[in-house]
Amino acid sequence: MNYSEKTSYLRQWWNDNNFPVIVFSLTWLWLNLLSCTMLYLFPMRAASLNWCIFPQNIFLEGWVRWDAGWYLGIAESGYTNIAKNIEGQKDTAFFPLYPLFIRALNKIIPNVYFCGVLISNISFLAALILLFRIIRMNYDIKVAKQAIILISVYPFSLFYRAMYTESLFILLVVSAFYFGEKKKWIFASIMAAGAGATRIVGFLTIAGLLVLYLDKSGWDRKKIRPDILWIALAGLGVGSYMLYLSITFGNPLLFATNQTAHGWNAGTPLETARESISVFLSASTLVERFYPVLRLFYILLFFLCLIFCIISWKKLGIAYASWAILMVLLSFMGWKSMGRYTSTIFPLFISFALMLKKEIWFKTAVYLSIVLLTFFTLLFTHAYWVA
């Protein structure tokens, strides 16, 4: 490929992908400026100073909170299955692919936390580009652009910029569906396996790919070919981690049993709803009332997401809609982090774009999302728990 051909290729690539790149860049710049400015003007509360990883670098400081410490430990020292705090929480509750990528990049870049944040941001950018392509395969350019905007300003999209697994997970899932749309099932299955090695809900991608395959075959048994067997590879992600846990610690289900530790066990939604209402009514300060309201918001968010998936079933297509519904239902088992978990269910944002047909509805949703995203980002970067 000569210089002229390279230039032409790059120009065409930019024309095809400039919108998600621009949206990513603008939201990245906005959230980082917000984080830096507010950390400078309003230093962290004294009780959270132990979370200051980069006290001299406020550009990076706000994005290494909470679970980042677990990924650091796994990336540097591997799994120990030893309780790290008085709640009895253990590192085997976290899946291995993200910290493995961090460890690999850390051989080139010495700062582990920077590696994590870099992987998250690059993964999210790549996910937006692929998602934009998938949507354009099935819908017009307006729906594609609106979906990209909605997912980028979603109130919990801040986790795409932080040292969390959300960016890598959505990249792998979107890649799996992208290759599935192209009928490259071996690559789709490899991506799905990666999703399963990133988060437990990644195994649901197997169901999504299977339905997509059958849908593309017209639900005709005569059109099913041996390449459907490639989808079985998608189970290697979760399966490999279970095998490792079994060999190393003698229990393949440690990732599940350790989720029952205090602070991670969400309890039943009904019980927590009652408790939250009681706490809200008896609280004397706004801060005391915030978390009960947030918990109730998550319960409402579950029903909202489920309703959107159901009513837009035909428009989304059976593969995307069924996968999204399964994801919403399973995510509700850890409903205290419902906001973060729903951020990776990309068909939701296609559904939102399809439903918000009027310009005033779309703009209202975007402005409201921006306000909430700003609020949650300020909380998260100042070491308050959000999701």
Describe the fold and architecture.
The longest helix is centred in the first third of the chain and has 39 residues, at 3-41. The protein is built from 18 helices and no strands. The protein has a domain at 165-265. α1 packs across α5, α7 packs antiparallel against α8 and α8 runs parallel beside α10. It starts with a helix and ends in a 6-residue tail after the last helix. The protein is mainly α and 387 residues long. The chain is 66% helix and 0% strand. The protein is globular, with a radius of gyration of 21 Å. The chain has helices at residues 3-41, 58-61, 68-77, 97-106, 112-138, 141-152, 166-181, 185-196, 204-216, 236-249, 254-257, 269-282, 286-311, 313-316, 318-331, 338-342, 346-355, 359-381.
Task: Please supply descriptive tags for the structure shown above.
387 residues; mainly alpha; 18 helices
